[in-house]
Design goal:
This protein is mainly α. The chain has helices at 10-41, 46-65, 68-82, 86-122, 126-139, 143-158, 162-186, 190-213, 234-262, 266-303, 306-342, 346-378, 382-407, 409-429.
Length: 438
Amino acid sequence: MNNPKIYNDIKLYKLIISIAIPMILSNISTPLLGLIDTSIIGRISIEQIGAIAIGSTILSFIYFCFGFFRMGTTGLIAQAYGKNDYYQIKNIIKKNLFMAFIFGIFCIPSLLILKNILILIFTNNINIQLYTESYINIRIFGAPATFINFVIFGVLLGINKPWKIFKLVLFINSLNIILDLYFGMYLGLNIKGIAIGTIISEYAGIILGLCYIKPIIPLNNILSQKRFFKDKFNLIFKANFNLFIRTFFILMSIIMFTAIGSRLGETILAANAILIILQMFLSYSLDGFAQATEVLIGNEYGKKNKKKITKIIISSIIISFIFSILYSIIFYYYSMKIIELITPINEIIDECKNYIFWIIISPLISFLAFQLDGIYIGANKTIIMKNTVIISFIIYIICLLIFVPIFNNHGLWASFIIFMFFRGLLLLSQYKKLYKFN
């Protein structure tokens, strides 16, 4: 690790950045689409704005837990691709597509049963409840498409085709906007039209996505091999289960942050919601570098190339750290100007000023957790990711119990930042296990 060439491999830096750029653009397009959807429905009804916000949040939370279909697929595909094991690549694609479809189908009746309870958590306004219910009743039928698209994204990233992911995301989002305008405004279907437009674009994305991976796996033999159901799913199940648990606890940390913040007053709740938007854009951006690392680590892990793995780890962390510094500088000078664009309410702006310190330091503390996640996904060390998140979550709970009663919202933000810090620190403490090849 003391070899200076490890730290100044310009070609490797360029390679990481070249993969990261389309992934960052793809990641950021998702929240931007939400803003466009809101602006479209905002011309129709204030109550429907709230319904879309609640419905989208509920679906996002659920879909977020199944993000393992993307992450798990990337790591396994990248390793098989590094070994030029095309039979294994086909095997992984087939099994993950099958599992994504089954889980997607299972989600439909599950959410239809639970939706009313979940909606009540967010609002007691009867009109908003009805609008949200009608929105979810349509959108939930897009669950199989969402999960299958996760797998397709994972495959394309695993074989180092990030620009195809960007094109696919751009196609889905552009079609979504066009259909939202057509169904929602032109046909006057309002919130139902928005939901219909979204699921049509998701299923259309599957068609384009399968065309992208067709050279790898012929579309006419997805389930044709006799060994499909005989081959054990153990490796894929273990990876996906560990990632599901890891993602669940991250989601719980965000839910608890929001729930506790809501009890500290409406102004603080509004301020935290805006500050979390800045944190989300940070995570979407830094995730791009983590995703670039996933495929590169996976490729070299398949070849068992320890020297190259070390170079990728160090180079990717250096790049991520540099960009985290840039984000902190941007937040220091421009965060309040961004907040003023989001809301004109002086009371909320003043409240944001009280807690902007946490957003400024967040990139410097959060980057390690994001980047190491990508490294461990590429190496398929998902059990380490699961275990470290559980320990970090326990520390988070302890911090909440100690700091929030004393420091209120500052205690809440300190607890969240500490959670992110320990996620990165505990992953770093396990780095030697990256060199234990399966």
